[in-house]
Specification:
Helices cover 56% and strands 4% of the residues. It has 3 helices and 3 strands, in the order E-E-E-H-H-H. Strand 1 and strand 2 (13-15) form a beta hairpin.
Length: 156
């Protein structure tokens, strides 16, 4: 039983050669294939779709943070965590804008150019690190809370 590993070509296409007889078709499980197409995967197209999805999630979080910033500002400086929340939300917004710009640059680079692989890897790691920081900052924003705690009713 001779099986060859997946092959990755420099043109951004990948094929699975799972049956070991040189046939380019992927192995079937239980007589059925999950997808009926024998298309090769274009790695550039895949990476661009992934970056677009990350950008959409970044936009959703950006809108949520803008809404939180508005709510904190409406509560005013009398709110106990006013300054920390303003700072944390502002940091989150700035980092999200930076990640959005970084993702635009990532989409523009060609994965097929081996000379760009080092730079793309660095930029991808940077984007991942910034997203992690954004998540941590937003955990603190959530922990401090945006809504003013309700005061207990006083009986007269």
């Amino acid at each position: 039983m001779d099986s060859t590993p997946d092959s990755h070509e420099m043109n951004g296409l990948t094929t699975a050669m799972g049956n070991g007889n040189g046939d380019q078709t992927p192995p079937e499980e239980g007589g059925r294939r999950w997808l009926r197409t024998n298309r090769q995967i274009n790695m550039n197209h895949y990476a661009n779709k992934k970056s677009a999805a990350e950008s959409m999630l970044d936009i959703a979080l950006l809108m949520a943070n803008a809404s939180q910033l508005k709510a904190v500002m409406e509560q005013g400086p009398s709110f106990g965590f006013y300054v920390p929340l303003i700072v944390l939300i502002s940091i989150s917004l700035a980092l999200q804008i930076a990640v959005g710009v970084l993702l635009i640059f990532l989409v523009k680079y060609d994965l097929n150019n081996p000379a760009k692989h080092g730079k793309l890897d660095f930029l991808n790691n940077l984007a991942t690190g910034l997203v992690f920081i954004i998540v941590v900052v937003n955990i603190f924003v959530t922990a401090f809370g945006v809504q003013k705690p309700s005061l207990p009713e006083q009986k007269t």
